[in-house]
Design brief:
Blueprint (H helix, E strand, L loop, with lengths): L4 H15 L5 H18 L6 H25 L14
Helix pairs in contact: 1-2, 1-3, 2-3
């Protein structure tokens, strides 16, 4: 599963943006904040902390865009046919 982290975070940001339409940017930022917290917990010295802050900000831009894409996809989906008895 190595190398799939950013892709999975993008898919999760799109899914949450699809499900919760209000302020989707916060879910992408929340995902990145969690990742940054894990890195800080596993390496408390954090010699490369300034680089990590820049990287988190850079990765946040596409994740926010994907979260908004999830919001935009919601109106295009239509529910399927409903059975006459309501089931």
């Amino acid at each position: 599963m190595r190398g799939w982290g950013t892709t999975l975070m993008g898919a999760l940001a799109a899914l949450v943006g699809f499900l919760i339409r209000q302020r989707p940017w916060r879910w992408a930022i929340l995902l990145l904040t969690g990742q940054f917290g894990v890195v800080l917990a596993t390496n408390p010295a954090a010699v490369l902390m300034p680089f990590g802050v820049v990287l988190v900000g850079t990765l946040g831009i596409p994740l926010v865009m994907v979260a908004y894409l999830g919001v935009l996809m919601r109106p295009h989906l239509r529910p399927g046919p409903v059975a006459p008895d309501g089931s």
